[in-house]
């Protein structure tokens, strides 16, 4: 457990130093809890004092980050950028979006022109699964995408219709609309977070084969180079 705490807190410091404050806050909180669990098991009072001091230092930094993030959000100035390098791994939807999903999240807007081919439809399915897994209060998902005028639209409409029925069974409404002029990619949460991915949800590379590592687990899937810009606004619902 001590090794796990060290690993998570080391990651928190790295994220903190690179300006990824929301991600670092999640790691600090997880690492602090692990250190508290280690402290509970210690009998040596000198070691307990050492760990109390460590925990206090990390808690103070976490509070500073929380205050900084809250102030930036209050001022409408929050902006964070994540660079995903070519062939990088560890950027599954859960890893990318988890820091911005709160228990209060209930409505999501997805604008992405490329949710139409088979692998793109599966990407959107996995994104929806991630939402359900991380937040049980999600009740409505809006999708604005385009249709491929050169291809058979049956697969796209059939797949999204099936997903709509499946989500309905989970108590979630899927609203799908099409636009022939959509170009930008953007994901908005009703808790105020806005995530803009240069490539939209389609930033994963094709796996080498159906039985190759990364085919099922997207944390192990290699990525195409792209950037992710994160903003916060109090007025997401009116955008």
Automatic annotation (TrEMBL):
<dbReference type="InterPro" id="IPR036181">
    <property type="entry name" value="MIT_dom_sf"/>
</dbReference>
<dbReference type="InterPro" id="IPR052817">
    <property type="entry name" value="MIT_domain_contain_protein1"/>
</dbReference>
<dbReference type="Pfam" id="PF16565">
    <property type="entry name" value="MIT_C"/>
</dbReference>
<dbReference type="InterPro" id="IPR045331">
    <property type="entry name" value="MITD1_N"/>
</dbReference>
<dbReference type="InterPro" id="IPR007330">
    <property type="entry name" value="MIT_dom"/>
</dbReference>
<feature type="domain" description="MIT">
    <location>
        <begin position="2"/>
        <end position="76"/>
    </location>
</feature>
<dbReference type="InterPro" id="IPR038113">
    <property type="entry name" value="MITD1_C_sf"/>
</dbReference>
<dbReference type="Pfam" id="PF04212">
    <property type="entry name" value="MIT"/>
</dbReference>
<protein>
    <submittedName>
        <fullName>MIT domain-containing protein 1</fullName>
    </submittedName>
</protein>
<dbReference type="InterPro" id="IPR032341">
    <property type="entry name" value="MITD1_C"/>
</dbReference>
